[in-house]
Amino acid sequence: MIPMFQPEDIAPHLDIAALLPAAKDAFRALSDGSAQAPVYVLHPNDMADIHVKSACLPDCPIFTVKMAGWSQVLVDRGEPASSGLIVVFDSITCKPIAILQDNHLISDYRTAAAGALVADLLAPRDVASALVVGTGMQARLQVEALLLSRRVPQIAVWGRDPQKTAQLRDDLAKIHPRTEFSLAGDLADAVPLADVILTATAAKDPVVDASWLRPGQHITSVGSDDATKCEIDPQAMAQAKVFVDARTSGEAFGSPRRAIAQGIIATSDLTEIGTCLTQGIAREPEDITLACLSGLGIQDLTAVRHLWQKLQPAAQLDLTGKAVT
What we know:
By secondary structure, this protein is of the alpha/beta class. It has helices at residues 7-10, 20-32, 72-77, 105-122, 137-149, 162-175, 187-193, 236-239, 247-252, 254-261, 273-279, 297-315, and strands at 4-5, 39-45, 48-55, 62-71, 82-90, 96-100, 129-133, 154-158, 180-183, 196-199, 218-221, 241-244, 270-272, 289-292.
C-alpha cells in the first residue's frame, strides 16, 4: 500500500527558513534549464481553480505531481479555501511511492520561502514600514517571510473584509511583538507610505494602481499564479524592474501576462529570480522592484525533496521509496 501523509504529519516539518535552500535550488534549476516543470490550470467553475503542477530534475531520485485547488465557495462558507495533494514518484521506475495530502500546506510554505528569498534579494536594506494586502494564509506567511531578512518597525494590514483584516492584524501582533501592526484605510493612501508592499489576493483586476507607487519601493505579488489574476496595475511594469519565477510563467500568468499582452513591456524585460542568484543584482535606491510569483512545480519538488528526508522514516522508506530493513 502506498503510504499517505496527512496535514498533521507534514505541518511539524514545515519552516520557511529551512526551505530557503530548496527555493534557491528551484529558481536556479528554472534559469539554467535543467528543470522540467509543466503546469496546467483548470477552472471547473467560475469560482474555483485547480492547479496541476509536475516537475523532475536530473539525478533526483523522486519526481512530483501536485493537484492544488482553491474555491470561493469554501471562502463564502467560512471554510479553508485550499485543498490538494502531492504524489511522489520514483524517478527510475515511475511508480508512486507516497501521497502527501497536505491540503496546500507545502505550497503555502514553499511560496513563503520564495517570498523570503525575494525580499532578501530585492527589498531595501532599511525598511521603515510595510503593507500587506490580503487576509489569508499567504498574507500571514509573507509577513513572516519578510521579517526573516528585514527588521520592520511598522506593518499595515489591508483587506476587503474588516473582520478578517482586524483578526490578521491581531494574530500578527501576537506572533511578532517587535513590530507594530495597524489597519490600513484607503489603499491609495497606504501604498505610497510603505517601503515594501506584499500582495496576496485572488484579484482578477488590479488592487494596486501604478500611480500610487514611488521610487525605492519593493512589491512582492504572490497572486500571479494563473492567467485570470492581476493584482498589480500592468502600467506599473513600465515603472519597475520586474522579476519572475521564469519568463515562460511571466508570459502566461498574472500581471506580467497582462502587461505583455497590452504591449506595456516585452518578455525580455522580465528577469528570472534564478538569474539574480547566479549573476547577482544591483539595486539602486530609486529603483522600484516588483516580483510576481506564480509558483511552479519545481518548487514543490525541491520542497518535497527536503521534507521527504524527514517523512520517509515514518513510512519506513528510503529516499527512493524502497522499504528500510
